[in-house]
Amino acid sequence: MEGNAQSKEDVKEAGVLWFLQQAKGLKAAGVPCLHFYTMRKTELTARIAEEVF
């Protein structure tokens, strides 16, 4: 994400995109499993899991 985040939604989306990049990289490197701490943000975790797996 370029520039500064303008809203909480921008910050949330930047975090999701960063995490997706990390998770996909780990999976591509052959990491056998990933553990997600949801912090009660299950909708974000579900989105990430769907896109990674």
Quick recap:
By secondary structure, the protein is mainly alpha-helical. The chain has two helices and no strands.
Question: What does this entry look like structurally?
Answer:
- The protein has a domain at 24-53.
- The model has no long low-confidence stretch (mean pLDDT 88).
- The protein is built from two helices and no strands.
- Helix 1 (8-28) packs parallel to helix 2.
- The longest helix is centred in the middle third of the chain and has 21 residues, at 8-28.
- The chain is mostly helical and 53 residues long.
Write the layout of secondary structure elements.
Elements: H1 8-28, H2 42-52
What is the β-strand count?
Answer: 0
Intertermini distance: 23 Å
Reading the helices and strands in chain order gives HH
> What is the makeup of the main sheet?
none
Globally, the shape reads globular
Summarize the amount of helix as a percent range. 55-70%
Low-confidence segments, given as residue ranges, are: none
- What's the number of helices? 2
Report the radius of gyration as a whole number of Å. Answer: 12 Å
Percent in strands: under 5%
Sum up the structure in keywords.
53 residues; mainly alpha; 0% strand
